[in-house]
Design brief:
four-stranded mixed sheet, UDP-n-acetylglucosamine1-carboxyvinyl-transferase, Chain, alpha/beta, globular, binds shikimate-3-phosphate
Length: 445
């Protein structure tokens, strides 16, 4: 896959110092647009992530008749003029989610319950990602969805139907699947129950009540009894900073000798906080000061300073809670003392790239001792990487940023191809990295 954008990163020549402005949470930004679009009234949102993924979600709702008014040039504040649960218009064109798995999977739940036809597409990477996990459960609730290989892959064609409530038993621990089913549940007749194999991020459950729709837990089930409408909240929605973006600077600050980075106020929702538990177990020097919640989400000010890291075996319970952070954590492990073992993380193989294969190839080329397993890795840490290689980020934002961090501790520079996807989640990553002293730049074309 060739998406372009070449990063050149080399060893940090000084300790990393300063403050990072971590952008808004990607998962929460998607949900904020979706619920606001389906509500009656105008919702104001602040702290929105203006990455390509979230802008794709915004554009899709504009295609269905939702007016979005940006309140600043950076596109971090906006007003969404909701059209109500049944106010979306049939799109004239296919809906393009770009690289955004969260957009496409959550949206399929919403579109399944409309009274119109729609077609969802994305980029090359999204067209390879599994969709049957949402399609087969939505079909059980009455949805009419077709796609490549019987609905396993995009493009998906969705003929909106009346849906019925039911108990869904999920096979994979996936917040996207859970959220898709809850959003479809807004349109279903009767109660929707979702049973997860393991708890996953709960941003949808936290945000729906802000729009007047209760969601509750009953044992292991998450339950939604649709009330038939969503109401725009009276107060603006504030989106906290994304821990999945903060982690790259947490790892860089931990690895580069003498560093001290302030990551600012970052989301610490326990279902997103696995990265911190893993780094703390690796003996990273992390200072956490609790702050008042941002909306329904817990946050804290986080500071990190350089220390010697130690390999660990990742606890099974931390795997879903750190699922997006493993590329960065593998870099920490490659430069830690001792062995780092991760199992039960086969979901990494179906992200924006196969993140086990991508990281094994990239880190091994850079000189790390890393063994690939079907569901994880075994890494034997070393003091420095050799570097002096060009690696492929496979159009995966998190691989590109992780390898840029790895290069800070390499003897020779690392070139990262196909890194342009950084813009999906952290548009000014390179500028902020340079500002705190990281040795990194875009190759001029
Ligand atoms: C997300 C859920 C996770 C995560 C993704 C965002 C979400 O995916 O990897 O980046 O916003 O619900 P899965 O649901 O596939 O685990």
């Amino acid at each position: 896959m060739n998406i372009g954008g070449t990063l050149i990163a080399g060893a940090a020549t000084q300790p990393l110092r300063g403050e990072i402005t971590v952008p808004g949470d990607k998962s929460i930004s998607h949900r904020s647009i979706m619920l606001a679009a389906l509500a009656d009234g105008i919702t104001e949102i602040h702290g929105f992530l203006p990455g390509q993924d979230n802008l794709a979600t915004a554009r899709i709702f504009e295609c269905m008749g939702v007016a979005i008014q940006w309140l600043n040039a950076e596109k971090t504040s906006l007003q969404v003029h909701g059209v109500g649960l049944h106010g979306l218009q049939e799109p004239m064109m296919v809906l393009d989610a770009g690289n955004a798995g969260t957009c496409v999977r959550l949206l399929s739940g919403i579109l399944a319950g409309q009274s119109f036809h729609s077609v969802l597409v994305g980029d090359e990477s999204l067209h390879r990602r599994p969709m049957l996990r949402v399609v087969e459960l939505l079909r059980k609730a009455g949805a009419c969805i077709d796609g490549r290989e019987q609905g396993a892959y995009l493009p998906l064609a969705i003929r909106g139907q009346s849906l019925h409530g039911m108990t869904h038993v999920m096979r994979v621990a996936s917040a996207q699947v859970k959220s898709c089913l809850l959003l479809a549940g807004l349109y279903a007749k009767g109660e929707t129950r979702v049973r997860e194999p393991r708890p996953t991020r709960d941003h949808t459950e936290r945000m729906l009540p802000l729009f007047g729709q209760a969601v509750w837990k009953d044992g292991h089930d998450i339950v939604l009894q649709p009330i038939g409408s969503l109401q725009a909240p009276a107060l603006p929605i504030h989106i906290p900073a994304d821990p999945s973006s903060a982690v790259f600077f947490a790892v860089a600050g931990a690895l580069v000798d003498g560093s001290s980075l302030n990551l600012g106020t970052v989301g610490i929702n326990p279902r997103r906080d696995g990265w911190r538990r893993v780094l703390e177990a690796m003996q990273a020097n992390i200072e956490v000061s609790a702050c008042p919640n941002v909306g329904e989400e817990p946050v804290a000010e986080i500071k990190i300073s350089g220390s010697v890291l130690h390999g660990i075996t990742v606890a099974a319970t931390d795997v879903p809670d750190a699922i997006d952070e493993f590329p960065a954590l593998f870099v920490a492990a490659a430069l830690a003392e001792g062995d780092f073992v991760l199992v039960g993380a086969e979901e990494l193989r179906v992200k924006e790239s196969d993140r086990i294969a991508s990281m094994v190839a990239a880190l091994r080329a850079a000189g790390a001792d890393i063994e690939e397993h079907p569901d994880g890795v075994h890494i034997r840490g070393c003091a420095r990487l050799a570097g002096g290689v060009a690696i492929d980020a496979h159009g995966d934002h998190r691989i590109a940023m992780a390898m840029a961090v790895a290069a800070q501790c390499a003897d020779a520079p690392i070139t990262v191809y196909n890194a342009a996807a950084i813009a999906t989640s952290f548009p000014d990553f390179v500028a902020q990295a340079q500002a705190v002293g990281m040795n990194i730049k875009w190759q001029e074309t």
